[in-house]
Amino acid sequence: MPVCKRFSPQAGTINMHVLFVHTGNEQFVKIDRDLLSASFTLQDLHVPARFPRSLLRYLRGVARTDIVFCWFASWNSFWALLLARAFKRPSILVIGGYDVANVPEAHYGHQRGGPSRWVSRWAMGLARILLPFSVYSLQQALDNAGIAPQRMRLVYLGIPDSFGALPQVPSERMALTVGNVAWPNLRRKGLEPFVRAAALLPDVHFVLVGAWFDDSITYLRSIASPNVTFTGWISDEELRACYLRASVYVQASLHEGFGLSVAEAMLAGCIPVTTRAGALPEVVGECGVYTESSDPDSISRAIVSALSSSQSDRLRARQRVLTEFTLDRRRQMIDQVMKSAQIKGHVP
Predict the structure, then answer these.
(1) Phi-psi region for residue 208, left (φ > 0), alpha (ψ -120 to 50) or beta?
(2) What radius of gyration, in Å, describes the C-alpha atoms of the chain?
(3) CATH assignment of 3-158+326-341, among 3.40.50.2000, 3.40.800.20, 1.25.10.10, 1.25.40.10
(4) pLDDT digits (tens, 9 = 90+) for 301-335
(5) Is the pLDDT of residue 168 over 90?
(6) Which fold has domain 174-324?
(7) Other CB atoms within 10 Å distance of the CB of residue 131
(8) Domain extents in the chain
(9) What is the residue-wise DSSP string for 61-116?
């Protein structure tokens, strides 16, 4: 069942009640929830089901709020945004992932067609302001969903620094990737070519962190060389330890709306090895190594190049995230958007 919870505002907050609607507790959702609760009185509406079992929680939430803030254009946000329109409440919708994507070769994205396409477009049409979190996701909304640019405002994600500084001890000869182990992600997230690349670099420890959602883990184990470790789900503390141990972080994706794990790894001093898919070049900039393709040979060559990076290269990767994707910048921009959303028809 959906859960509706009120967060008490901190000192110096704005006298505005916000209904925060989402389907999961991914890291980027948690970050925004913390940012909003620092400035506004926040009511958290977690809707894990595709279709609400009861509209009563939506009705109560929207009726008691000043503004509705949703993550991703899908069934959960559609009902909240529809009621926001009925109750004449301003609304903001964060977009940029599966909701605006159309990647048929990876069987990914609402914009491929079917009911999900129309529900996501209806949701985007109902929101007063749309917040894509990368230039790429903004362009996807334009190209795949026909969203007018004047309805959107680009606000990059803010990445908290959980490390404080780079470790003094040298990183291990370790290549890390993070992603849920499920059949669609073997190609979309590049998990299979990552595992296959390990056989080409037997002196490098390959680590795949991510929960096991189906029997794709059996398949990956069947093709893995002895230098591959599958951790399954691990805690945030354990994940931070993995980031600090690794020399290289690999993201061999076909599509990325942003690349949060890449940015987190860069904060820990990992040299990113990525494709040029989606928003990855926006995150990595000139601080990583790009693969020619997502095949194992290209990935292994890029890892070898990244392993030769210096400490100054690692500091530069960390500094890029600290400079370009700050929590303060996202907080300030969201606060501005929240205030402007109360002015009917005005998009900053």
Answers:
(1) beta
(2) 21
(3) 3.40.50.2000
(4) 999 999 999 999 999 999 999 999 999 999 999 99
(5) no
(6) Rossmann fold (3.40.50)
(7) 24
(8) 3-158+326-341, 174-324
(9) HHHT-SEEEEESSSHHHHHHHHHHHHTT--EEEEE-STTT--BGGGTB-GGGSSHH
Q: How many residues does the chain have?
A: 348
Tell me if 3-158+326-341 shares its fold with 174-324: yes
Q: Which amino acid type is present at position 96?
A: G
pLDDT digits (tens, 9 = 90+) for 243-279: 999 999 999 999 999 999 999 999 999 999 999 999 9
DSSP state of 272: E
Spatial CB neighbours of 85, under 8 Å, sequence gap ≥ 6? 91, 126
Place of tokens 């301003």: 90
Residue with tokens 């005005």: 346
* Beta strands, E only, the chain: 3-7, 17-22, 41-46, 67-71, 91-95, 129-132, 174-178, 205-209, 228-232, 248-251, 271-274, 289-290
Note the pLDDT tens digit of each residue in 111-134. Answer: 999 999 999 999 999 999 999 999
Q: What is the pLDDT, as a whole number, of residue 6?
A: 52
pLDDT at 55 (0 to 100): 83
Two tokens, residue 308: 């030769």
Does 165 or 304 have the greater pLDDT score?
A: 304
Phi, psi of 208 (to 5 degrees): -110, 115
What does the pLDDT read at residue 8? 47
**Nearest to 31, CA basis, from 341, 326, 344, 293:** 326
